Amino acid sequence: MGDIKRNFHKGHVEYGLEKKHLTNNAKAEVTHFKEDKTEFYTYRAVMTGLTPGVQYHYRVGSKDSKWSDSFHFRTLPKGNDWNPKLAIYGDLGWKDDESLPFLVKEVHDNDAFDTVFHIGDFAYDLHDKDGEKGHKFMNAIEPIAARVPYMVLPGNHEKHDNFSHYEARFSMIGDRFQPNRAGPLTPRINNHFSSMNIGPAHIIMFSTEFYYYTKYGWSQIENQFRFLEQDLIQANSERSQRPWIIVMGHRPMYCLKELDEEDLEECDGTTLERPFVRTGIHMNDDKQLAVNSDWRIFYNGEIKSGLNKANPYDNPSGPIHIITGSAGNKKGHPKFNAHPKDWLAYHHLDFGYTRLTFQNRTNIILEQTSDEKNGQILDHGSKPEQVHINLGPHENEVVISWASMKKTSNPMVQYGTDKTQFKDKSNAEEFYFSLDKFYTYRALIKNLKPDTIYLGSSKEWSKTFQFKTFKSGSNWLPYIVLFGDLGWQNYESYPYLIQELPKTDIMFHVGDMAYDLHERNGEKGNDFMRSVEPMLANVFYMVCPGNHERTDNFTHYDSRFSMLGDYLNPKPNAKIIDRINNHYHSIDVGPVHIIMFSTEFYYYTQWGWEQIHYQYKWLVEDLEKANRNRIQRPWIVVMGHRALYCLRLGDKSCDNDKFERPDIREGLLYKEDGSRGPQYGLEYLFYHYGVDLEIYAHEHYYARMAPIFNHKVQKGMVNNNMYVDPMAPVQLITGSAGNREVHPTFNPDVIGKDFLVARSEDYGYSRMYFKSKLHMVFEQTSIDEGNIVVDSFEYIKTDNYPKFIHVKGAVINQDDSNLTVTVEKIPDGQTGSFMQRMNVQMNNAWNKFRCQFYTKAAIPMAKISTKNRIQQNTKNTQHKINSSSSSLNVTKSEIFFGPKRTYLLLLLPPQCFFNRTTTTTTEAPTEPPEETTIPYYYYGYNGAELMSGKVRPIHRKPGHTKISQTRRRPPFKRRKLWNRRRRRPGVIVVRNGGRRRQFQRRRPNSSPHRNRRHRSTTERGMTIIGSILRAIQSIYNRTIGRVFGSTNIKNSNIE
């Protein structure tokens, strides 16, 4: 701190953890500077006893005069196990300070940097106008220098009066080897050469100007050299703790600008080097000094490439030189040398500054910004970056994605099992994202061998990565890592996630990335993807969207990731872009079927309602298929960003009185009075289909809930252990991986509720692994406590199927084939009324299946004869179930219910028609062939339609023709077309005591705000055309199709 032409004699710093309670005080030392007409006082104070990684507030001044504004800063984390972010630049003046607004914005808005380094040339110049230029410059940089450690070294523009104006304003501590913390501060200052430790790096700042202004003496050159030598020896002895050594000086060792007469005095125009700095200078004719001679970019003009010849920055065998002197000053840009040497990799003349980001202990990223391009990053070109891999819907498919800032010709991935030779390659598809102006490349690798380590790199530029494919089938036990809400800043969990890589099979990121992907014209997304590349490029990384990905209808999110969404309807030969669905998709991981879906569709309906319907329909189909496959994969786990039950305050999507998010738990209300809702609710859907585990994020902490359904805790089946055969899905929240928003306020009313079992507000992530195929272990770590486990539980199942979907009720009958039908009256979670739930189960040595469906009609007892026949009470209609000694084939099963003249026809779900045969071995039965399913037609309605809200009553027009009760129904093959003719398409007819009720299925594309009770003339015309086309299809299939071997016309367009 400084004061102009006033001497307060007493200066202090008051500081503390809270802005209003500055409880600590540090006394300042005063230095008086006077030269000609320049006079001011500088105050320096040392704050002691600070806690690492904590934000402090402070103000400076005196009680006798006045205090400054309040500032705040964050101390650096302790030790070397963290990843700093640095801003580095030189040559920043008071006027034409092009980079200063961008630097101020990054520091204030994003807390983007841990430390700022200004490597010479300030204000242009500090002494101008009797020091007024220096005062104005220091006031201009105060928003940065008062908030972030501002480290400096001198340049040639500080040479005036032996650097005295520079010395008077800055306070670099230079007593690393002989610290005297108890003594006065002023003797400890060395603004010319000093060093410090920041995370995994040791950083040295030195003066190149000693070599050019020897009129002020020769001894400082030798003193600095001895310091450098001693410091570098010690830094190398500590390489195991801090593997990086970075040196900074003002003048580079090699010249790049076009030389004038003044430059020729310091640069060798032939070799383009500064001989004084590079090879040392001669003193007393026999003594040669060299600066940093063992750490050059190359030795005597010879380029030292890396171990990976395709990437010279992968383990390079010499230092890398960077020049960053374009922050902005009155001199503008010099002319660049017209004949640069081959050791020049890249140059640019835009104003800007450099970002240096540590990804981990072994990787750093250097980025150069352009002020002319509004802060965008330069020096990336077509180099592949942001590499990440994800699993396809089938275990032998892997998608590799990467980005580049410029178009790449013939993009591809080379891969193989031998690191020295990649025998295989896969071409990549290109996608250009115009908003953030970068290219995404995606390559699909097929037919990979199971349980095999593959290595590969994208064409010519990227380093080599590796991944291991899954073991084949479902009889293996995966190790899964899960987390949500991981940002680019404050990503506390990332170093520990890196440590999990050797044993991790797959990672799931449950929404909210980078905070946010679109910020700084997409550069925040680039920074995030670059920083986590060492993790994402070596293990399968699966994602779903959160609320922070919503910008521009999730386009920034969609442009970066490549989740394949064709698990239900595989399209192996289609383009990758046509197979991607980054919002809802599913995969199989060992004994687990994992579904990722979007909760954000429910909250950002300005981009449409249809996606809610399509996702819900997909969820129903995927869950039905997963339940048919429970023998192989007994676990179903779903993941979405926002939890059904919320525990935090300050979230508009929460009902804090009920601790729920009603839009996703119960469903959306299309009208305020609820006349057309709720619909598409998720809690009942997941409960109905027996989901075992629901994993969410969004709330920046960890929480474990008891098995819960409809706000009621459901105990387990064994000794009241809630996690042994629980009677409802178990819900978890894991959103504390680390981001700039830190932790929200926990709802105090939730504490003590029976459904909340455990919680932690520490940073951390989750792990899920298995002791056996039916025994899962779930753990939550705490980064704050040193990555220890703070919560864990074991989820045990005694059967492949969850107990809460095993319907209990009256067993109607059980014949020799173990066919069991049970009935239960249950509440309808969608409408609040009651429904009948029916369970049909076949269980014998050759066949196992379980089917469920629902109806609101009264269901009297059905008769099941001991001769494997299901009979209608009043009619002599029989449907046989054929069995033999080796297999059981359910060809068709229709159940008729109701008294005389009343019937309700229900067709069982498709899984009831599968021919599931197995041998006497313990191997699970294979999935039945698709052609064994029976076509779907019905007069009733199934559970899926009830839950989705697509069935609703409509009024019949007066005089509408009634359906004849005596008309004979045609044979089975013609019945579908007959049904179309005898009733309006899309209408379901239910007879009840001679009266007819009609229900109309809601069209998916219809507006949710319109209630169409009657169809227009155009709609009726389209219906007639559709009927004619279906009739043509039926005739073709029975005649011409049989002759030419084709028995079906695709009718997707007809529907």
UniProtKB/TrEMBL annotation:
<protein>
    <recommendedName>
        <fullName>Purple acid phosphatase</fullName>
        <ecNumber>3.1.3.2</ecNumber>
    </recommendedName>
</protein>
<feature type="domain" description="Calcineurin-like phosphoesterase">
    <location>
        <begin position="480"/>
        <end position="702"/>
    </location>
</feature>
<keyword id="KW-0732">Signal</keyword>
<dbReference type="Pfam" id="PF14008">
    <property type="entry name" value="Metallophos_C"/>
</dbReference>
<dbReference type="InterPro" id="IPR008963">
    <property type="entry name" value="Purple_acid_Pase-like_N"/>
</dbReference>
<dbReference type="InterPro" id="IPR029052">
    <property type="entry name" value="Metallo-depent_PP-like"/>
</dbReference>
<dbReference type="InterPro" id="IPR004843">
    <property type="entry name" value="Calcineurin-like_PHP"/>
</dbReference>
<keyword id="KW-0378">Hydrolase</keyword>
<dbReference type="GO" id="GO:0046872">
    <property type="term" value="F:metal ion binding"/>
</dbReference>
<dbReference type="InterPro" id="IPR015914">
    <property type="entry name" value="PAPs_N"/>
</dbReference>
<dbReference type="InterPro" id="IPR003961">
    <property type="entry name" value="FN3_dom"/>
</dbReference>
<keyword id="KW-0325">Glycoprotein</keyword>
<dbReference type="Pfam" id="PF00149">
    <property type="entry name" value="Metallophos"/>
</dbReference>
<feature type="region of interest" description="Disordered">
    <location>
        <begin position="994"/>
        <end position="1021"/>
    </location>
</feature>
<comment type="similarity">
    <text>Belongs to the metallophosphoesterase superfamily. Purple acid phosphatase family.</text>
</comment>
<feature type="domain" description="Purple acid phosphatase C-terminal">
    <location>
        <begin position="318"/>
        <end position="380"/>
    </location>
</feature>
<dbReference type="Pfam" id="PF16656">
    <property type="entry name" value="Pur_ac_phosph_N"/>
</dbReference>
<dbReference type="InterPro" id="IPR025733">
    <property type="entry name" value="PAPs_C"/>
</dbReference>
<dbReference type="InterPro" id="IPR041792">
    <property type="entry name" value="MPP_PAP"/>
</dbReference>
<dbReference type="GO" id="GO:0003993">
    <property type="term" value="F:acid phosphatase activity"/>
</dbReference>
<feature type="domain" description="Purple acid phosphatase C-terminal">
    <location>
        <begin position="728"/>
        <end position="792"/>
    </location>
</feature>
<feature type="compositionally biased region" description="Basic residues">
    <location>
        <begin position="994"/>
        <end position="1015"/>
    </location>
</feature>
<feature type="domain" description="Purple acid phosphatase N-terminal">
    <location>
        <begin position="384"/>
        <end position="469"/>
    </location>
</feature>
<feature type="domain" description="Purple acid phosphatase N-terminal">
    <location>
        <begin position="10"/>
        <end position="75"/>
    </location>
</feature>
<feature type="domain" description="Calcineurin-like phosphoesterase">
    <location>
        <begin position="85"/>
        <end position="265"/>
    </location>
</feature>
